[in-house]
Amino acid sequence: MSGPRKQVLVFRELPPAQLARLQAAHDVTVANPRAGRQDAFEAALPRAQGLIGSSYRIDGPLLARAPRLEVISSISVGVDNYDVAALRARGIVLCHTPGVLTQTTADTLFALIMAASRRLVELSNHVRDGHWTANIGEDLFGWDVHGKTLGILGFGRIGQALAQRAALGFGMPVLYHNDAPVQAPALGARARQVALADVLRQSDIVAVTLPLTAQTRGLLDARAFSLMKPGAIFVNGARGAIVQEQALLDALDHGTLRAAALDVFATEPLPLSSPLRRHPKVTCLPHIGSATHETRLAMAELATTNLLAALAGEQPQAVYTGG
Ligand SMILES: NC(=O)C1=CN([C@@H]2O[C@H](COP(=O)(O)OP(=O)(O)OC[C@H]3O[C@@H](n4cnc5c(N)ncnc54)[C@H](OP(=O)(O)O)[C@@H]3O)[C@@H](O)[C@H]2O)C=CC1
Ligand SMILES: O=CC(=O)O
Known about the structure:
Blueprint: E1 7-10, H1 16-25, E2 27-30, H2 38-44, E3 50-53, H3 60-64, E4 71-74, H4 84-90, E5 93-95, H5 102-118, H6 120-128, E6 150-153, H7 157-170, E7 174-177, E8 191-193, H8 196-202, E9 205-208, H9 222-227, E10 233-236, H10 245-253, E11 259-262, E12 282-284, H11 293-311
Parallel strand pairs: 1-2, 1-3, 3-4, 4-5, 6-7, 6-9, 7-8, 9-10, 10-11, 11-12
Helix pairs in contact: 1-11, 5-7
The site of NADPH dihydro-nicotinamide-adenine-dinucleotide phosphate (NDP) has 32 residues, from α5 and α7.
């Protein structure tokens, strides 16, 4: 990969090795607008030809301030922060990081399932707060995970990796909903594609692994929660805005939902005022689906490779081609 040096704007910090790869080929400005560098970010936009980063909304008005932009390389698989139509209209390439985070994110989702079912965080706090003064009683018992029916909304890379853990590791029948027909041959009869309402009605645990799109925004509403089995558990490891959070709270407080475990929220970081934060039936994580040392490094490496290829006029490994 060689060619003229171009202007690269890094809008979320990169590990040293990946930053060095970019600096060897291009002129690089590092300015994370979410970490006090908004002015430097804005100043670099007019000359930027390549952007690399994540967790920042890049919409039409922002793109209008970046007239030379050729490529955005997102350090994420989800692309809901980008105005894809506006990028396409300008011919700007959008790259992302599918695959390298699949197994780690599926691990996180399964950890959320375990945490909610076996009340792990609540009982850890019970010990930490000095309440373990006698054997616990039935009021603190959990709920078995093995053998329960798992419903998965969105049966792509992460959904299928989650299904493997559930079906092969925990003997859980899997029901899944996906817009296009999709099969998981390795799971045989252990996993079945059914309509959305049937996943909700028949599953003991419902997990979301959908992308956030115009179709999925707010999909989990009051009606969806009302269809779920009494005593069901709800897990979201995808995007917060797929869920109507007030409807979730109502289902926990006035409906029959047993518990929820959430890695993602409509507003992140989760505001201190959010009732989800201290709700006794909710386990909250700070969007850590892919947050291991190994996986975040792999994501940074893939995003860097994508950006370098695109700026050199070559085909990047992972261009986002969806709607
Ligand atoms: N918590 C975290 O830290 C992380 C969260 N994520 C989130 O997980 C999402 C999924 O990632 P990944 O599995 O790699 O993506 P994939 O594209 O592989 O999977 C998404 C699946 O959802 C299906 N789908 C899309 N729209 C709909 C719809 N309206 N109704 C039903 N099914 C639909 C897709 O089907 P089709 O292709 O046929 O449209 C696809 O099978 C990401 O978009 C991201 O938002 C990802 C990583 C980490
Ligand atoms: O949320 C994380 C992602 O990669 O998307």
